[in-house]
Fold this protein.
Amino acid sequence: MALPEQLLADVFVELAGSTLHPPQGGPGLLELLARRTAGLLGDCSAATVCVYIDTGGGSGSGGGGDGGGTAGSDAAVRALARDAAAWREGPGHDCGTTGVPMKDAVFDDPAVHTRWPRYAARARDLGHVRAAACPLRAGARTLGALVLLSRDRLGSDTLTLGQSLADVAAISLERERQIRENRLLVGQLEHALDSRVLIEQAKGMLAARLAVPPQEAFTLLRRHARSHNRVLRDVAREVIDGRLTLGGAGA
């Protein structure tokens, strides 16, 4: 398969710089992957399925997370990918779950039709005869799959290019997952630090007002929070603001 080097470079750069959830309603990474793959390969349609992205490890369809999605190079393929994810059928589901590439599945093959009854029938109705799937791999993790639908057998060069596109997309997906994890961790640390500052400030004010050691003042704060089923941070804020007065007997 001979393609202009600049065209290939542009597609890889575009995929490397894309995210699953772009700002201002632009096309997301899965949609770009499906469109560009079909555009490069010409004789096939492409669908992508993101099995899952979460903050845990491993591969497969378990785990949950908020990054899962589907896309297609056209409306019909997009609908097929979406329905296949709900049915848990098709090359995208199997490849994304196992992480094993699928080179050639013929929809008229009785074994294939038995394995994916709804998917195979729909794909055949859309004029597709065969399918292949390339896993979206990020290290040991499999995030989903790129599905290639065609009337003819897909050659090894086509599958190699498809896998390269899937690999670049998976790197972008993994990068976005890591950024989201880091942002969550930073937010948690900032919240914990803010809470600690408030609690220390309230502890100091209460210790000075009651003329007790700081540890005893902290015990009063914690006792009040527990007995009233309150968050310690909120109790500390009210003490600082003067909306709550604590004493040895009233704590």
